[in-house]
Design goal:
This protein has about 80 residues and is mainly α. The protein is about 70% helix and about 0% strand. The chain has helices at about 5-40, 65-84. The longest helix has about 40 residues, at about 5-40.
Length: about 80
């Protein structure tokens, strides 16, 4: 076989492979959409849960506790020491 024939066979195989992958992905998308529609039809929607009370918001001027501040400073120091 000549190099041009080998090149043409390679291109042909590439196009067939890409076509097969594209076909499979399109089939996968269709299957997922079909399953979503079936689930919507046969499974009732879950009732919404009652909203819980929001967590209290800390004031902007509030300082963190001393042990929390020490832990943050220690973590920053270790991070900077590792980076060099």
């Amino acid at each position: 076989m000549t190099s041009s024939q080998l090149l043409l066979e390679g291109v042909e195989l590439m196009l067939m492979g890409m076509g097969a992958v594209y076909f499979f992905l399109a089939l996968l998308v269709l299957a997922i959409r079909l399953m979503a529609r079936l689930i919507e039809r046969f499974v009732p929607a879950a009732p919404l849960r009652a909203a819980t009370a929001p967590l209290p918001v800390k004031l902007a001027g509030h300082q963190p506790e001393a042990d929390v501040l020490a832990a943050i400073q220690s973590a920053i120091h270790q991070h900077r020491a590792r980076r060099g």
